[in-house]
Amino acid sequence: MNKTLFALAGGAAAILMPVCASAQSSVTLFGVVETGVQHLTNVNAAGASVTNLASGNYAASRWGMLGTEDLGGGYKAMFRIEAGFNADDGSNASAASFFNRYSQVSLGAPWGTVTAGRTGSVKFDKTALYDPLLFSNYSNISLGQVPPAYLKVNNAVKYQSPSFGGFNVELMYGLGQEAGALHRGLSFGCESQLIHYRTICIRMSGITRRSPPRRSPCAGATARRPRRSSASARRPARASP
Questions:
Q1: How far apart are CA 59 and CA 123, in angstroms?
Q2: Nearest one of 168, 157, 222 to 191, comparing CA atoms
Q3: Rama region for 184: left / alpha / beta (φ>0; ψ in -120 to 50; rest)
């Protein structure tokens, strides 16, 4: 099946609204609504085409809440709940859970951040930001390079280290939570990353040529023959008869 995007009708609308804020704590309500018109070809064996309204082509529609509480001494408590939905019909993006994107609590400290709940996997944290479309419908995820089932993990405990000169480490363990089968349904991941930014300065130089002032086509002008600077290019003097 070939997909061709005809026109983006709705676009993406981001909402960022602080519910309450102070020097110690804050709660933020946020969201993105995106929908567009798309044209699909070869949707079946007969090669039929269809034009429809779709949600999440370039950014997944979602809403959620972020909370932060400053505990002092470099420590802070945080939570994040986020639900995806389809803007074209208002249905939930996932039938399995309401807060399908995030449902987590975190503790931030000078030595790193510990997160528990439904959260992004190590693969998601280390690859999503390298995709310009952040794993929307028309992104690398549509090519099957990253299985969607591995992007978010339930019942997970995750540790993210601070950055040490661009080097960081992330560890995650997802509990299976099945009686009599501790290893069934569990997941784990670990990854290290080195991020190094290098600033490249490019200097461009050019020659600016100033055009002579324009003359009116009716104004008279005197044509001058160019001077010959080379003596060898001059005509020899005609000898007298």
A1: 19
A2: 168
A3: beta
Show Cβ contacts of residue 51 under 8 Å, excluding neighbours closer than 6 positions.
6, 37, 38, 39, 40
Dig out the tokens for 9 from the structure: 């009708």
* Strand-pair category, 50-55 with 25-41: antiparallel
Count of C-beta atoms within a 10 Å radius of residue 38: 20
- Contact, 69 vs 51, CB < 8 A? no
Q: What would the mean pLDDT of 165-192 be, rounded to a whole number? A: 79
CA distance linking residue 126 with residue 190, whole number of Å = 10
Would the pTM of this model clear 0.85, i.e. be above it?
no
CA-angle at 174, arms to 172 and 175, nearest 5°: 140
Q: How far apart are CA 176 and CA 27, in angstroms?
A: 31
- Dihedral of alpha carbons 114, 119, 124, 130, sign: negative
Query: Contact 15/30 with Cβ under 8 angstroms?
Result: yes
Cβ-contact 115, 173 below 8 angstroms? no
Closest CA to 81 of 62, 97, 66, 60: 66
Separation of alpha carbons 234 and 241, rounded Å: 21
Task: List, for residues 55-105, the tens digit of each pLDDT value.
Answer: 887 788 999 999 999 999 999 999 999 999 999 999 998 888 899 999 999
**How many whole angstroms separate alpha carbon 141 and alpha carbon 235?**
78
Residue 240's CB is within 10 A of a number of other CB atoms, namely: 4
